[in-house]
Specification:
- The protein is α+β, with helices and mostly antiparallel strands.
- It has seven helices and 16 strands.
């Protein structure tokens, strides 16, 4: 079976680096199926990378390889780590991204490359880790790794006593829809069919009182579920993120 390899980064598409890396991948793994998750992560934002990878990897076949390229140092001391979880392989530098993806309470173990960086490039190390896994040779080129850097990124919080969900804006998609860190499942379990008010605090306070399961042609602001399983604030063809002058990290509070 052809190996499926996904890529996610803050590299953009303007420069040739992404194409060069794909060329190196195919030179080593000629039958690889390479898929891009996104290369438009905000610069150095491992929190966005962790979010989008966590929410999207399960849509790929088991045994897939996911290369985490955002904010990797690619220096002479670069020692990428392999984590296998839910029968998927995640490869990247432990800059905190693994705990951001899977939480501080998830039991993680992995392998760290022991490659001689004086004789190979940083990107080639990641590629050869994929090859070593496919050839069942990982133990010969890595050492066990379990000292993962902890996550300090806050998660959405639900207080049933206060009848309130607290979250933050974490991402704007290409249509300037406002993606929060509030899981749709948390919202539905808490709010049910009760009336609610979602307040976004930025330069101006915005209140939203509608939820639609899917996108609808409605010029009013409303909440919806997105493909990542997260609550998203939208306005049909309205570029809400720009219209409301919102920013990453702005608070959203849902009371019901």
């Amino acid at each position: 079976m052809k190996p499926t390899i996904t890529l996610i980064s803050d590299w953009r598409n303007r420069d040739p680096y992404l194409a060069i890396f794909k060329g190196q991948l195919l030179d080593t793994l000629s039958d690889a199926h390479i898929l891009d998750i996104t290369h438009h992560i905000d610069m150095f934002s491992i929190s966005q990378t962790a979010l989008l990878m966590k929410q999207s990897y399960s849509y790929f076949q088991e045994g897939s390889f996911h290369l985490l390229l955002t904010n990797a140092s690619f220096t002479s001391t670069f020692k990428p780590v392999v984590v296998k979880l839910n029968n998927h392989y995640f490869i990247g530098e432990d800059n905190g991204i693994f705990r951001l993806m899977f939480g501080n309470n998830t039991e993680l173990s992995g392998w760290q490359s022991t490659a001689d960086m004086s004789s190979t490039s940083s990107l080639q190390v990641m590629i050869h880790l994929v090859k070593d896994i496919l050839n069942d040779n990982l133990d010969a080129t890595t050492a066990p790794y379990n000292t993962f850097k902890p996550s300090i990124s806050p998660e959405a919080y639900h207080s049933a006593f206060q009848r309130q969900i607290q979250g933050k804006i974490i991402y704007f998609d290409a249509f300037c829809n406002v993606v929060t860190n509030i899981p749709t499942a948390m919202f539905k379990e808490a709010v049910k069919d009760n009336p609610f008010t979602a307040t976004i605090k930025s330069e101006t306070q915005w209140n939203i009182q509608q939820y639609h399961e899917n996108y609808v042609p409605d010029k009013a602001m409303y909440l919806t579920n997105n493909a990542l399983g997260l609550i998203e604030a939208v306005m049909y063809q309205g570029k809400l993120g720009i219209l409301a002058t919102l920013s990453i990290g702005d608070e959203i509070i849902i009371t019901y």
